[in-house]
Fold these 4 entries.
Entry 1:
Amino acid sequence: MVKWVIMLLLLICGTNGNLNDSIVMASEKTKLVNSDKPKQDSKELMYQDMLMLFLLPHMDKKIDEIYSNLLNYSPEIYPYFVKVKDVHRVNGFRGFHFLITLDVVPTVGPHIPVGEDLLTFDIPPVNPDHVKLISWKHIKDPQKSDFPPNWQDVLRE
């Protein structure tokens, strides 16, 4: 029940501010883009981070499936490499049924980006344990040129 309350607070408060400005995304190569890196903590950033922790197991499941044919082992998802693209209240103002779309950059090893994916989850009001992935789009495959020589064995031939 506590998890449900926290999730609802995160989603409600998250729609009042722009949470996306505080997220660090991986660049096209293996270096991180630091220009959007937050300089200090904020309520919005804390809500974003708590929401990512709640949704992380759901994201992991699909990312493992997507990359099973591309990599020799499952990539990691770090909450700070997830950007909230859209949050939508299905039932309108003060409704507690949400659709949330996330831009995910999974990594391997020392934070080497292996691709990019959009995942949309349905978070129902009646039973929050029934979060469902309703759509996904694989945007970018891992590129051999993005990997240092000692990490290229991660890629499937």
Entry 2:
Amino acid sequence: MLELTMAAVCGADAGATAGMTMAEAPSAPGAVLRVGRDASVCRLVTPEDWLFVSRVHLEFACGPDGGWRLSWLRGSRAEPSCEVRLVTGEQHRPLSYGGTAPLPHGGAGEVVVLDRGASRSVNVGFHHEP
């Protein structure tokens, strides 16, 4: 099972937990959870006017072995207007635009989408139950 918790954070609201949303999916091959502005395809939806987030920005997908991977899907622009970081334990790794990284099996962490043009972020916490 993969559990996600998302919070949209703007400037002075850092640390606030109001407005958090949650999603989960079983660790079954082919299971997918998406994050972005398009509610028709994303389980976790960011504010529509936060254009630093693509319509479909992040994808969590379960592989044939039951392991999950995170992908930063390329949007319509050649260069992104945000940064994506994968935080697990003490490790903070940038994820490249269009890149993919495995999530730790049975672990927890956070994916942070930082707006390059304003003091706001989308924080997606994850917990992968073994």
Entry 3:
Amino acid sequence: MFDYGDPKLTTLAFQLHDMIRPSGVLFYRARYDGGKTLLEVLANTSMPVNQTLDRILMPDNTIGHLVVEMGQEIVIDDTLTHPLVRDSGAVHNMGIMAYLGVPCRLNGEVIGGISAVHQHRRNWSQSDIDAARWAARNYEAVARDRVERQMKKGWSDPDDPEKNATD
């Protein structure tokens, strides 16, 4: 359904970045491996945490995995004092000091999300949160459209192009 650097998601990531001016924006898809929630980076704005990101992010260094696992928005103005993340690698290894995350759903299931991160403490405004929600709904619309298009083509698994090589 999505490849890394997807043009539509990349455009959305930069639009959200322009709207709320965080240090960076990340669009990701949830992957599950051995009971762990891994995040596959689909699009991001340059280097959101001032370092190159791997394509697959381990839960130890993310807050987005909590967005997926909890299935809800997470808004943190100061990660150093927030009990959910203050001892995490996302704070101490990645340098995330403020975080705004919104889950993205397809057919009611969380498929991934959007993270806006900041390298300094920050008070996220309601308009920042609304902008992230807007971007998440657009991500969902793109996903929904692609699944519908792929199903019309008769692809059995819209997320696995190898299984669908007959097209």
Entry 4:
Amino acid sequence: MGESTDGDQIGTTPPARHGGGAVVTSTFEELAPALPNEVADLRRKLTRWLGELPLDPESTHDITLATYEALANVAAHAYPDGHGWARLQATRTGDAVTVIVTDTGCGIPATRPRQSGLRTSGGRGLALIEKVTDQTDIDTSGDGTTIRMTWRPAALRDENAS
């Protein structure tokens, strides 16, 4: 059996290279139903994509953790009627990895009421995301939510840059 490469994976593009072999860009994109088992599968696919990058284990963990929190929020909150989609996009450009999780659900209320006893009412996911990212931007409305998370891991910095 032959080994698959990034180019063989649906939803990914192989890293572009220039000059001394440094990776310039690499992208990942998948769309899946907003269901717990489906978003878990998206996380596994992202983890495989991240494995192709020269990342340290702590950065990979933080990216995977924050992404899964964002995807879990889509599955738990975005579609009260239970029907919808989650889009996961990731890009490595230079020394940054950016992950975008998008839905077309009901949005995040300005005040999120906590309901005792509900397993989805923890209210800590967004705080955790902000803690482990270098930058987090959230755009939400009644037409959906986009969470853009960016990391600049030391392992991706070009040692020759001035």
